[in-house]
Amino acid sequence: MKIRLIVGEQVAIATLYDNVTARDFASLLPLSLTMTDYDTIERVSDLPRTLSKQGAPEGMAPVAGELTHYAPWCNLAILIKPRSYSRSLLPLGKVDEGLPILSRPGPYKVRIERVAP
């Protein structure tokens, strides 16, 4: 499933992975969030609720551009740079185009919505 992440007048496009956690995230859309900096390599925001972990891996080593869910903090994390393995970090999707739009220093507002097929 394709989603758009809108920051001001700019749009990034991402593809959600085919897993239970990503489908649960999609069920929250459309969603407006405020992204903040975390550890200089992530932009994060709290989600309205924790997403399903059914069948999810115990963690992952994300690459730049991955959309993830950090279950213990109930947040969305967009990776600006790769990072080492992190337990409880769950894969949601990958930015296809527009990562520089999402890489700007926070805080900034983003609206996330489905792209019509």
TrEMBL record:
All copies of the Cyclophilin-like domain together span 6-113
- Highest taxon of the lineage: Bacteria
Q: Which InterPro entries match?
A: Cyclophilin-like, Cyclophilin-like_dom_sf
Gene3D superfamilies found in the cross-reference section: 2.40.100.20
Identification of the protein by name: Cyclophilin-like domain-containing protein
Lineage of source species: Bacteria, Pseudomonadati, Pseudomonadota, Betaproteobacteria, Burkholderiales
